[in-house]
Specification:
The chain has 240 residues and is mainly alpha-helical. 67% of the residues lie in helices and 0% in strands. The structure holds zinc ion.
């Protein structure tokens, strides 16, 4: 029952994350106003029965009921992934605080992934919440001093890299990784950076059809935040 509830809460909150992803980077929009959803194409209010997570997308065949504009696949994707990750989190721990922290980290990771991909920026509020989630994990797991040293090492290393390769690493990426490294520790932080870099390279290769343009800016947060969550899960399930 507890697992099923986690899945449902994750899917419903995923629907809210979609609102955040769309409205947060657009300065003329507010997260809370209007409280109802509107179609980005025709501006018409979306009624509750067309706004049921995942299900409505399938029933409407991915099109707005009013203007027939295509609804981004991002909407059901974020709802599904957030729900599934909450489910995985519920199996990962029986500690409610740890569960909450893991959910905060994956939800913020999804928001960061899509906003950074589109706007090349990482909102401060998501950085703060990920750092908070990571801090809670660090507390619950017994305040490992090595992890604290790891934060210093990782931050120093990334700042150096950002200085050497200007434009390669943004300040947001460094803060994101600093926050994550508190719960990850030194070794897992290294794995996170490897996973993120590998997926970023694959993304760049696909986008540029096989060529790697060194000058191109890559939204690194898009890969870094989910890689952090992924490594945390490996840590838990492989007992690293
Ligand atoms: Zn519409």
């Amino acid at each position: 029952m507890w697992h099923f509830l986690s899945l449902i809460v994750g899917v419903v909150l995923g629907s809210f994350l979609n609102v955040v992803i769309y409205r947060l980077p657009r300065k003329d929009l507010s997260i809370v106003k209007p409280a109802y959803s509107i179609c980005p194409s025709c501006g018409k209010r979306i009624l509750w029965y067309d706004n049921i997570p995942i299900l409505s997308y399938i029933l409407l065949r991915g099109k707005c009921r009013n203007c027939k504009a295509k609804i981004s696949l991002r909407y059901p994707f974020v709802e599904l992934i957030n729900g599934l990750c909450y489910l995985i989190n519920s199996y990962a721990t029986s500690n409610p605080l740890e569960f909450l922290a893991l959910c905060m980290i994956i939800s913020c990771s999804l928001v960061i992934a899509f906003i950074d991909l589109e706007f090349m920026l990482i909102p401060d509020v998501t950085l703060f919440l990920i750092a908070l989630g990571s801090f809670i994990l660090w507390l619950v797991r017994g305040l490992d001093l090595y992890n604290l040293i790891g934060v210093g090492l990782v931050t120093g290393l990334l700042m150096l890299l950002g200085f050497l390769y200007k434009g390669g690493l943004g300040g947001g990426d460094v803060i994101l990784m600093a926050g994550l490294s508190l719960s990850l520790g030194i070794v897992s932080s290294f794995y996170t950076l490897v996973f993120a870099s590998m997926s970023a390279i694959v993304y760049a290769l696909i986008k540029n059809k096989g060529k790697l343009a060194m000058k191109e800016r890559i939204p690194f947060g898009t890969f870094l935040a989910p890689a952090g969550y992924f490594t945390l899960m490996i840590q838990i399930y492989l007992k690293m």
